[in-house]
Each structure stands twice: as structure tokens, then as C-alpha cells.
Amino acid sequence: MPTPPDTDRRAARSRRRAVAWICLLATVLVPVDLASLPAGAAEGDSPPSGGVSPGAPTRYYLSLGDSLAAGVQPDSQGRDHPTDKGYVDAIAAHVRKRVPGLQEVKLGGAGTSGSAITGPPANSAYPGSSQLDQAVRFLHSHRKQVVLITVNLGDNDVEGCVHASGIDQGCVSRGLAQVSQNLTKIGQRLREKAGKRVPIVGISDYDQFWAYWLNGSKGRSVARSSEDLIRKLNRTVDSSWKQAQVTSADAASRFHTFDTHQTTLAGHGEVPRAVQRICKLTWACSGPPIGFDDHANSRGYKQIARAVIAALPQR
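Above: the chain's sequence. Below: its structure in C-alpha cell form.
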């Protein structure tokens, strides 16, 4: 684990990177004449907030992905709902300091996988077209107004392969092949429509299955095995994004996903650091009526946001 000085230096590098990227925005956000946009491009734009020049076009942050992109969290009865406390909201608040009036365009939805985003809509929130098609159309009509795109995908392609009794390796292999095939195509299509200068960031996955550690010896066995699954998933995701000129954000490190050093967890004694973090940053270790819910909590979403901010390009 890093010593305190190492941690301080890493935090300082993250701050410098964030400041550098905010300065970059000042150079890439060239004013756009609304009259030059396709008809209807500005429909639904909100009035600019303080600090925006009169007549300046609205700037957008476009997000795609699964339920994490929608900020989903459970209520007190264990029912999942989208919230405004997700990583997208935290990133938008950060960017809005330099881009007043920035608008979020959230296309993420529950159950979205690498295949669902290119195929039929994941849910009724996207009628008539896939999430990706909607993003492409938005980029076509707002190309010079979008300042950032984020995507989180891959977890739902393999999550169903993990059970309390073990991991179906054949299912994992099929899921990873699907991720490899689809994410590169998704990234290439977004890059083509967004242009070279717009940052596009894909997000790696944390390992929610470390929560199984609390379920006895069999659960600990599944938790240990899940570490290898998430390593393979994140390598596949990162490789796919790289081929499409999409930057990868290392959310897994923020959750100490691969840290098996021992620490303490209230009520459970000594556990791997990865277990302690997954219980602290997600709902996966909850008692009834919530139970095992792999969505991040508000603290976890902030960690994902920090991973994205740290990955933004320096120029």
C-alpha cells in the first residue's frame, strides 16, 4: 500500500491534472453560432447560468452506460431508482466551475450491456432507438457543443456469470468476447461523431463480489475468484477503449479492488482491504430489505468521478 508521502504526491498529481484539463477547456470551447446548427439543435436548451455570455451556445456533458451512469441507488425498501448523486453529477459539478451552464445529457440506463447499447433500447426511457444511436444523433446536432463524453459498460456482460455457488467460466468467456467486440465499435462510433478534441472516457469496473466474503467459506471462495474475473474484464475494457482512442479511467483502484492486505471492518473483524472498501462505497454489504445491491453509494460515486477527472487529458 502507498505510504502517506506517496499518497500526497498522487493527490497532487491528480489536482494538477484536473487544473490542466480545466484550462484545456478554455482553448477548445470555441463559441458556436446557433444559427449554424441544424434545425432544432438548440431545442430544450436551458437558459445559461451566471457567467455565461448572452447568446452563447449551451455546452453539454454526454454520458452513456448502465445503471451507474444513471446514479442508481436503492431506497429504504431496497427499490432501485436513478438519483442526482451519481458520478455523472459529480463530474458535471466539477466541469461546471469552468463551464457555467453546462448541461448533463444522461443516456445511461439499468441493465445496459455492451450488446444492449448497440441493439434494442435497454428500457422504456429510450424508445425507438438504441442508447448509442441517440448519442450519435445528439453529437450530430450538437457536435461543437459537447465538451465531455463518459461511458461505463462491461459489468452487465459478465455479472450474471457469478453465483453464490461459484463462477461459470464459460459464461465469462462469452461475456468478455462480447465486451471486446462491442466496446471498440461503440468507442469508434462515438469518436467519429465527436471529433478528435472532445475527451471520451471509459470507466473500469470495481468488484462488487468482494461482498460475498461476508457469507462464510463458500462466499470467500467466490470473492477470491471474482478478483481474477474483474482483472480480465478491466483488461478487456481498457484494451477495447484504447483501440477506439478512448481514455480509460481506473475506478477499480479507487475501490482498492485488488488490495488483499488485511484491515478491519466493523462487525466482521479482519477482512481484505477490497472487502472493506466495497462495503464502504457500495450497497453490496447491506442488510435487509436492501441486501446485496451492487450499486455505488454517494461516496462511491464520488470516487468514480475522481477517477474520471484524474484521467482527463493534460495539454
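The chain has one domain: 4-311.
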